[in-house]
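[job 0417] fold request received: Lipoprotein
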Amino acid sequence: MISLKQKTSWLAVASASLALAACGGDSSSSSDNLSLDPLTYTGSDAEATVSTDNYNDIAQKVHAVTLAMVAGNSLQSIGFGGPGGPMIPGPRMLSKAVSNVQASVLAEASSLSKTAAASAPAGVLVTSSNGRSYTSSNTAEGECGGSASFETTFTIKSTASEDDDEASPVDSVGEDSGEDISVTFKDYCAYLDDDVTEIVLNGNMTMNYAYSEQYDYVNDTRSVDGTETGSATLRVTLGDDQVVVKSAMKGRNHADYSYDEELDDDVYNPDTFVYDSARVLQISGNGLSGKHTYTESCDVDPEDPTDTTCTESEVINVGGTNYKLEGYASPYGGVYLTVYLPTFGSVVVRSGSSSPTLCDNYAGFESGSLSVNNGEISITYSGCDAEPVVSYSGNSDLMLQ
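[job 0417] inference complete; emitting structure tokens
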């Protein structure tokens, strides 16, 4: 029997978790060939039917996916540079460290650019048909060495149209704004929360935002439109661990509002409303690689035109197979997942009597249990060197690979 633990090292499975971008160990890795196209799930969406013939196989797949999510400290929002993301999986909260470093540098770059643009003398601002823009270059020193240099360009353009009605001389106003940020990390060193452990970043990332808002006072309507794109390739070093993270993201939203007297509120135009967002992560190192994608799409709620309904899709690749996920799994919040298995369909996975606890090497669970389909299958962990025990309909077996 091939040991499951021999097949699922922390990097192999954790790389499928929610995160910011990464790929490849050293400069000789093949990470540049990794695709950033979103993963797709093409398996069964029906509820799985568990039997004596398949319960152990289902348990093995549930274990692998749950371990990937927990080991990667999977978070359910992976904003690119904002609170809660970007993230990468790894030991000793590597993901949290990269997230904090990137978020702080992006926030500083954006703040410096906007502050400089607001206070710059008129002669410093570049004025054109596209509006006013300001470009600044700055450098942030790392807490324990190295630097992050960034360049930001902030652009804003205001518009207004007039008519001949003296009672309403301005019939519409608008504002377009944009921001471009590029950051280069050079041995940028920061401390983890323990203020002792160092994390070092090398590489580049970019973010681009565009936003437009228009008001029509004559027709009492408002329109907003926004886009965002970003990408990153970072080499991350934490102690003896080194990975390269690569990610990409894009988003688009558009909404036209009008005032509804009956509701006494602004309502969306469902025919023109758009909200789509996608994040793609890849990570590799030590010859291993994995991928995770997250997409979200929203429409106007047909029952409430002041609100929207959204559909989220998460797909991870574990062991060469794509799985669709709903819910969350983390070392702290327990397990609350619906896992779609291509061959069998969907199963509901929850923490058992106690939540699974990770082994120090992230290769498995040391203790705790998982419940599948409200106890139809149970998976019990009793040591990092012991095979999990699977129970179903009075049968108890070691988990098979």
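[job 0417] notes: The chain has one domain: 4-159+179-213+229-249+280-294+311-398. The first strand starts at residue 126 and ends at 128.
[job 0417] exit 0
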